[in-house]
Amino acid sequence: MMTRRTLFGSAVAALGAIAATRFATMPKAHAAGEFEIEHTDAEWKKILTPEQYEVLRQEGTEAPFTSPLDHEKRKGIFTCAGCDQPLFESDKKFDSGTGWPSFWEPIKGAVIEKSDSSFGMVRTAVECHRCGGHLGHVFDDGPQPTGLRYCMNGVAMKFTPAAS
Q: Could you say which DSSP state residue 117 is in?
């Protein structure tokens, strides 16, 4: 039987879930002067495509199996779409089957790892060291030698093939 109390409780729970989701996806502010490359929000919107802006600056996630970089197999370097910082070498890439480009190791000093407790789970977010752009997350279920899986949003990166 639906009473006012159960109806009110359900409404409060629903509003709480909506608020938690909304605030969990809000971008985390960086301190001014924290990164080598910095722009205002308006400047980032001019520099990036809407999809890149959503991921790099708003900490969004692209849909799985949508990035051509997931299937990129040529030798080369994956760079940040926001600032061209070299991030990953192609020989560190592997097919994780998750639908996102995955790597077992970044280029030394290229990324920052931060705790991310959005969506009710604790993960490690990966950001570009140069501009602070959100790239994806790192998990401990990757291949050897590191055992790590840097699961990156393809839209947050560009690929530069090696010279032939």
A: -
pTM: 0.80
Delimit the domains of the chain by residue range.
Answer: 4-161
* Segment 17-29, tens digit of pLDDT: 333 333 344 445 5
Bridge partners for 94 per DSSP: 102
Which residues lie below 8 Å from residue 98, measured CB to CB, with a gap of 6+?
64, 149, 151
At residue 34, φ and ψ (nearest 5 deg) are -75, -25
| For residues 44-73, average pLDDT | 97
- Asked if 133 and 59 count as a contact pair (C-beta separation under 8 A), the reply is no
Indicate if 151 belongs to the active site.
yes
Please work out, in degrees rounded to the nearest 5, the angle formed at the alpha carbon of residue 106 by the alpha carbons of 42 and 90: 100
4-161: CATH superfamily = Peptide methionine sulfoxide reductase. (2.170.150.20)
E strand map for the chain:
76-80, 86-89, 93-94, 102-103, 111-116, 123-128, 134-139, 149-152, 157-161
Longest Cα separation, the chain: 72
Can you tell me whether residue 43 is helix, strand or coil? Answer: helix
Residue 126 burial (10 A CB sphere; 0-12, 13-18, 19+): buried
